[in-house]
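RECORD TYPE: inverse folding
INPUT: structure tokens
STRUCTURE:
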């Protein structure tokens, strides 16, 4: 169910990202479509993984997609930063022998905006979600 993304997947990738992060990151994500992997369920994109951007972001609409993409990511990465509210990601990493190293705070400049931390399985970096 995990395949390389195509240009036709960009709209779904951006919609998932916007729902998860509350941010509009189309300029950044659009540049990396051909380097992105997506999780498909019933023909639709339910999650994506971008292995070549900073901290290798993973966004998913649910645990099936998120954990499938994390398995791919964990095969070649030793560290991951994700929201504490994502219980599925925390359980995955505990089960695979990862240990919590430290906690950081999510900072927002200006008025807070809605986001869905349970959809963020790995952030890109501290400055971009």
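DESIGNED SEQUENCE:
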């Amino acid at each position: 169910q995990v395949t390389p993304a195509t240009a036709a997947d960009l709209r779904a990738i951006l919609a998932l990202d916007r729902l998860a992060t509350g941010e509009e990151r189309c300029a950044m994500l659009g540049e990396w479509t051909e380097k992105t992997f997506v999780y498909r369920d019933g023909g639709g994109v339910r999650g994506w993984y971008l292995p070549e951007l900073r901290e290798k972001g993973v966004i998913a609409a649910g645990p099936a997609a998120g954990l499938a993409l994390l398995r791919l990511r964990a095969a070649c990465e030793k560290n991951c930063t994700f929201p504490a509210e994502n219980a599925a990601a925390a359980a995955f990493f505990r089960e695979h022998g990862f240990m919590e190293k430290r906690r950081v705070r999510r900072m927002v400049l200006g008025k807070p905006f809605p986001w869905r931390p349970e959809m963020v399985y790995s952030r890109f970096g501290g400055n971009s979600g």
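NOTES: The chain has a mean pLDDT of 90.
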